[in-house]
Design brief:
alpha/beta, eight-stranded mixed sheet
Length: 293
Protein backbone atom coordinates (compact mmCIF):
# COMPACT_ATOMS: atom_id res chain seq x y z
CA UNK A 1 0.00 0.00 0.00
CA UNK A 2 1.53 3.33 -1.07
CA UNK A 3 2.00 6.02 1.54
CA UNK A 4 -0.64 8.72 1.18
CA UNK A 5 0.33 12.36 1.33
CA UNK A 6 -1.35 14.68 3.82
CA UNK A 7 -4.71 16.04 2.71
CA UNK A 8 -4.95 19.29 0.79
CA UNK A 9 -4.33 22.42 2.89
CA UNK A 10 -3.56 20.38 6.03
CA UNK A 11 -0.21 19.55 7.53
CA UNK A 12 1.00 17.10 10.15
CA UNK A 13 1.83 18.61 13.53
CA UNK A 14 3.42 17.46 16.77
CA UNK A 15 2.77 19.73 19.74
CA UNK A 16 4.38 19.57 23.18
CA UNK A 17 1.91 20.30 25.97
CA UNK A 18 2.48 20.44 29.71
CA UNK A 19 1.52 16.76 29.87
CA UNK A 20 2.37 14.92 26.64
CA UNK A 21 3.37 15.47 23.03
CA UNK A 22 0.25 15.23 20.88
CA UNK A 23 0.02 14.93 17.10
CA UNK A 24 -2.51 15.23 14.30
CA UNK A 25 -3.49 17.42 11.33
CA UNK A 26 -3.67 21.24 11.25
CA UNK A 27 -4.80 23.58 8.49
CA UNK A 28 -2.05 26.11 9.25
CA UNK A 29 -4.39 28.87 10.38
CA UNK A 30 -3.53 30.68 13.62
CA UNK A 31 -6.19 33.40 13.90
CA UNK A 32 -9.78 32.89 15.01
CA UNK A 33 -11.49 30.48 17.38
CA UNK A 34 -9.93 27.00 17.08
CA UNK A 35 -11.96 23.94 16.13
CA UNK A 36 -10.68 20.80 17.87
CA UNK A 37 -11.65 17.39 16.46
CA UNK A 38 -11.36 14.18 18.50
CA UNK A 39 -11.40 10.71 16.92
CA UNK A 40 -12.88 7.48 18.24
CA UNK A 41 -11.29 4.65 20.22
CA UNK A 42 -8.29 3.08 18.43
CA UNK A 43 -8.75 5.44 15.46
CA UNK A 44 -6.53 8.43 14.66
CA UNK A 45 -6.66 11.84 12.99
CA UNK A 46 -7.06 10.25 9.55
CA UNK A 47 -10.67 9.46 10.46
CA UNK A 48 -11.43 13.12 9.69
CA UNK A 49 -9.60 13.33 6.34
CA UNK A 50 -12.68 12.83 4.11
CA UNK A 51 -14.67 15.42 6.06
CA UNK A 52 -11.81 17.93 6.28
CA UNK A 53 -11.44 17.82 2.49
CA UNK A 54 -15.00 19.17 2.24
CA UNK A 55 -15.17 21.37 5.35
CA UNK A 56 -15.57 25.08 4.61
CA UNK A 57 -13.96 26.91 7.54
CA UNK A 58 -11.76 29.53 5.93
CA UNK A 59 -9.77 31.60 8.38
CA UNK A 60 -10.34 29.27 11.34
CA UNK A 61 -7.65 27.07 12.93
CA UNK A 62 -8.74 23.43 12.66
CA UNK A 63 -6.92 20.67 14.52
CA UNK A 64 -7.66 16.96 14.12
CA UNK A 65 -6.03 15.91 17.37
CA UNK A 66 -4.78 12.44 18.25
CA UNK A 67 -5.46 11.46 21.83
CA UNK A 68 -2.71 9.99 24.03
CA UNK A 69 -1.74 6.49 22.94
CA UNK A 70 -3.32 6.90 19.49
CA UNK A 71 -1.86 7.57 16.06
CA UNK A 72 1.41 9.47 16.36
CA UNK A 73 0.69 10.96 19.79
CA UNK A 74 2.81 10.04 22.80
CA UNK A 75 1.83 7.05 24.92
CA UNK A 76 1.19 7.47 28.60
CA UNK A 77 3.95 6.47 31.00
CA UNK A 78 3.93 2.79 31.98
CA UNK A 79 2.98 3.79 35.53
CA UNK A 80 -0.16 5.56 34.28
CA UNK A 81 -3.52 4.24 33.13
CA UNK A 82 -5.86 5.28 30.31
CA UNK A 83 -8.83 6.66 32.19
CA UNK A 84 -11.47 8.34 30.04
CA UNK A 85 -11.65 11.46 32.21
CA UNK A 86 -7.89 12.07 31.98
CA UNK A 87 -8.35 12.99 28.33
CA UNK A 88 -10.27 16.07 29.46
CA UNK A 89 -7.09 17.53 30.94
CA UNK A 90 -5.05 16.42 27.90
CA UNK A 91 -7.37 18.24 25.49
CA UNK A 92 -7.36 21.42 27.58
CA UNK A 93 -3.57 21.26 27.88
CA UNK A 94 -3.38 21.07 24.10
CA UNK A 95 -5.72 24.01 23.55
CA UNK A 96 -3.74 26.09 26.03
CA UNK A 97 -0.50 25.15 24.26
CA UNK A 98 -1.78 26.68 21.01
CA UNK A 99 -3.81 29.55 22.46
CA UNK A 100 -3.83 29.82 26.24
CA UNK A 101 -7.22 30.49 27.78
CA UNK A 102 -8.97 30.83 24.40
CA UNK A 103 -12.52 29.89 23.54
CA UNK A 104 -12.88 26.96 21.15
CA UNK A 105 -15.32 24.65 19.39
CA UNK A 106 -15.02 20.89 19.74
CA UNK A 107 -16.10 18.01 17.50
CA UNK A 108 -15.95 14.38 18.61
CA UNK A 109 -16.66 11.02 17.02
CA UNK A 110 -17.66 8.07 19.24
CA UNK A 111 -15.20 8.02 22.17
CA UNK A 112 -13.96 11.41 21.02
CA UNK A 113 -17.53 12.66 21.40
CA UNK A 114 -17.66 11.37 24.97
CA UNK A 115 -14.44 13.22 25.78
CA UNK A 116 -15.71 16.34 24.00
CA UNK A 117 -18.83 16.16 26.18
CA UNK A 118 -16.71 16.05 29.34
CA UNK A 119 -14.63 18.98 28.12
CA UNK A 120 -17.69 21.07 27.25
CA UNK A 121 -19.21 20.41 30.67
CA UNK A 122 -15.98 21.07 32.58
CA UNK A 123 -15.20 24.46 30.99
CA UNK A 124 -18.58 25.74 29.76
CA UNK A 125 -17.28 29.31 29.63
CA UNK A 126 -14.75 28.33 26.93
CA UNK A 127 -16.54 25.86 24.67
CA UNK A 128 -18.83 27.69 22.25
CA UNK A 129 -20.10 24.79 20.11
CA UNK A 130 -20.10 21.02 20.66
CA UNK A 131 -20.60 18.57 17.78
CA UNK A 132 -21.20 14.88 18.51
CA UNK A 133 -20.80 12.33 15.72
CA UNK A 134 -22.63 9.09 16.58
CA UNK A 135 -21.91 9.70 20.25
CA UNK A 136 -24.09 10.45 23.24
CA UNK A 137 -22.16 9.82 26.43
CA UNK A 138 -20.24 6.96 28.04
CA UNK A 139 -21.21 3.45 29.02
CA UNK A 140 -22.71 3.32 32.49
CA UNK A 141 -23.13 0.76 35.27
CA UNK A 142 -25.73 0.16 37.91
CA UNK A 143 -24.36 -0.09 41.43
CA UNK A 144 -24.59 -3.89 41.44
CA UNK A 145 -22.31 -4.08 38.40
CA UNK A 146 -19.51 -1.87 39.74
CA UNK A 147 -17.59 -4.59 41.55
CA UNK A 148 -17.97 -7.24 38.81
CA UNK A 149 -16.72 -4.67 36.25
CA UNK A 150 -13.73 -3.85 38.45
CA UNK A 151 -12.86 -7.54 38.82
CA UNK A 152 -13.16 -8.20 35.07
CA UNK A 153 -11.05 -5.15 34.23
CA UNK A 154 -8.25 -6.07 36.64
CA UNK A 155 -8.16 -9.64 35.33
CA UNK A 156 -8.19 -8.50 31.71
CA UNK A 157 -5.43 -5.93 32.29
CA UNK A 158 -3.25 -8.63 33.83
CA UNK A 159 -3.72 -11.00 30.88
CA UNK A 160 -3.02 -8.27 28.31
CA UNK A 161 0.39 -7.52 29.80
CA UNK A 162 1.62 -10.90 28.59
CA UNK A 163 -0.02 -10.82 25.16
CA UNK A 164 1.90 -10.24 21.92
CA UNK A 165 1.09 -7.61 19.33
CA UNK A 166 -0.36 -8.73 16.02
CA UNK A 167 2.19 -8.27 13.24
CA UNK A 168 0.94 -8.06 9.64
CA UNK A 169 3.22 -8.73 6.65
CA UNK A 170 1.94 -5.65 4.80
CA UNK A 171 -0.19 -2.59 5.50
CA UNK A 172 -2.78 -3.98 3.11
CA UNK A 173 -3.22 -7.05 5.31
CA UNK A 174 -3.50 -4.78 8.36
CA UNK A 175 -6.16 -2.75 6.53
CA UNK A 176 -8.18 -5.89 5.85
CA UNK A 177 -8.02 -6.74 9.56
CA UNK A 178 -9.19 -3.22 10.50
CA UNK A 179 -12.31 -3.48 8.33
CA UNK A 180 -13.75 -5.88 10.90
CA UNK A 181 -12.64 -3.83 13.91
CA UNK A 182 -14.51 -1.30 16.04
CA UNK A 183 -17.23 0.14 13.80
CA UNK A 184 -16.80 -1.99 10.67
CA UNK A 185 -15.49 0.06 7.74
CA UNK A 186 -14.64 -0.33 4.07
CA UNK A 187 -11.15 -0.93 2.73
CA UNK A 188 -10.69 2.68 1.49
CA UNK A 189 -11.54 4.03 4.94
CA UNK A 190 -9.43 1.38 6.61
CA UNK A 191 -6.42 2.27 4.46
CA UNK A 192 -6.58 5.87 5.72
CA UNK A 193 -6.53 4.76 9.36
CA UNK A 194 -3.85 2.12 8.81
CA UNK A 195 -1.54 4.49 6.94
CA UNK A 196 -1.34 6.74 9.98
CA UNK A 197 -1.93 4.12 12.66
CA UNK A 198 0.78 1.53 11.99
CA UNK A 199 4.54 1.30 12.53
CA UNK A 200 7.09 -0.96 10.90
CA UNK A 201 8.53 -3.72 13.11
CA UNK A 202 10.44 -6.92 12.55
CA UNK A 203 8.31 -9.12 10.33
CA UNK A 204 5.98 -6.42 9.05
CA UNK A 205 3.65 -3.82 10.50
CA UNK A 206 1.79 -3.44 13.77
CA UNK A 207 -0.50 -0.83 15.34
CA UNK A 208 1.09 2.34 16.67
CA UNK A 209 -1.60 2.71 19.33
CA UNK A 210 -0.73 1.74 22.90
CA UNK A 211 -1.87 -1.87 23.57
CA UNK A 212 -3.04 -0.77 27.03
CA UNK A 213 -5.94 1.01 25.32
CA UNK A 214 -7.48 -2.45 25.03
CA UNK A 215 -7.78 -2.69 28.80
CA UNK A 216 -11.41 -2.25 29.92
CA UNK A 217 -12.49 0.55 32.21
CA UNK A 218 -11.94 -0.08 35.90
CA UNK A 219 -14.97 2.04 36.76
CA UNK A 220 -17.85 3.48 34.76
CA UNK A 221 -20.11 6.44 35.33
CA UNK A 222 -23.60 6.00 36.73
CA UNK A 223 -26.51 7.31 34.66
CA UNK A 224 -27.14 9.98 37.30
CA UNK A 225 -23.57 11.20 36.86
CA UNK A 226 -23.98 11.34 33.08
CA UNK A 227 -27.17 13.37 33.49
CA UNK A 228 -25.40 15.81 35.80
CA UNK A 229 -22.48 16.21 33.38
CA UNK A 230 -24.60 16.68 30.28
CA UNK A 231 -26.82 19.08 32.16
CA UNK A 232 -23.76 21.24 32.75
CA UNK A 233 -23.17 21.88 29.04
CA UNK A 234 -24.03 25.51 28.31
CA UNK A 235 -23.18 25.74 24.60
CA UNK A 236 -25.36 24.67 21.66
CA UNK A 237 -24.91 20.98 20.79
CA UNK A 238 -25.22 19.38 17.35
CA UNK A 239 -25.80 15.60 17.33
CA UNK A 240 -25.30 13.81 14.02
CA UNK A 241 -26.18 10.12 13.89
CA UNK A 242 -25.73 7.56 11.12
CA UNK A 243 -28.74 5.80 9.67
CA UNK A 244 -26.88 2.56 10.38
CA UNK A 245 -24.71 3.82 13.23
CA UNK A 246 -24.46 2.80 16.85
CA UNK A 247 -26.89 5.32 18.26
CA UNK A 248 -30.01 3.71 16.85
CA UNK A 249 -29.04 0.43 18.55
CA UNK A 250 -29.21 1.90 22.04
CA UNK A 251 -32.78 2.83 22.87
CA UNK A 252 -31.83 3.20 26.54
CA UNK A 253 -29.58 6.22 25.95
CA UNK A 254 -32.08 8.21 23.88
CA UNK A 255 -33.37 9.64 27.16
CA UNK A 256 -30.09 11.56 27.29
CA UNK A 257 -31.36 13.87 24.58
CA UNK A 258 -33.39 15.54 27.32
CA UNK A 259 -30.27 16.13 29.43
CA UNK A 260 -28.91 18.69 26.95
CA UNK A 261 -30.20 22.25 27.16
CA UNK A 262 -29.77 23.34 23.54
CA UNK A 263 -29.73 20.45 21.07
CA UNK A 264 -29.99 20.18 17.28
CA UNK A 265 -30.16 16.68 15.80
CA UNK A 266 -29.74 15.36 12.25
CA UNK A 267 -29.55 11.90 10.74
CA UNK A 268 -26.95 11.28 8.04
CA UNK A 269 -26.70 8.33 5.66
CA UNK A 270 -24.01 5.87 6.73
CA UNK A 271 -22.78 3.68 9.55
CA UNK A 272 -20.78 4.50 12.66
CA UNK A 273 -18.06 6.16 10.52
CA UNK A 274 -20.49 8.14 8.35
CA UNK A 275 -18.08 11.10 8.49
CA UNK A 276 -15.61 8.94 6.55
CA UNK A 277 -17.74 6.96 4.13
CA UNK A 278 -21.39 7.94 4.48
CA UNK A 279 -22.84 11.25 3.33
CA UNK A 280 -19.57 13.03 4.02
CA UNK A 281 -20.52 16.18 2.10
CA UNK A 282 -23.67 16.73 4.17
CA UNK A 283 -21.78 15.96 7.38
CA UNK A 284 -19.14 18.57 6.53
CA UNK A 285 -21.77 21.12 5.62
CA UNK A 286 -23.74 20.62 8.84
CA UNK A 287 -20.61 20.79 10.99
CA UNK A 288 -19.24 23.85 9.21
CA UNK A 289 -22.53 25.73 9.37
CA UNK A 290 -23.03 24.90 13.04
CA UNK A 291 -19.65 26.04 14.35
CA UNK A 292 -19.89 29.31 12.42
CA UNK A 293 -23.29 30.30 13.80
Amino acid sequence: MQERKCILNYQHFSQQTERLTLAGFHNGQTQGRPVIMLHGWLDNAATFEPMLERLQLEGRPVYALELPGHGKSQHRDKSAQYHLVDNTIDVLAFVDSISEGSDFDIVGHSMGGIIATLVAASVPERVKHLVLLDSLGPLTDEIENVLPQLKRAVKRASSLRNSKLNVYPTKEVAARARTAGVGKISMPASRLLVERGTIEVEGGWTWSSDPRLLEPSLLRFSEAQVEAIMGGIECPVLLLVGTDGYFKQYEAIKKRLAYIKTLTQHQVDGGHHFHMEGDVALTAQLVGDFVTE
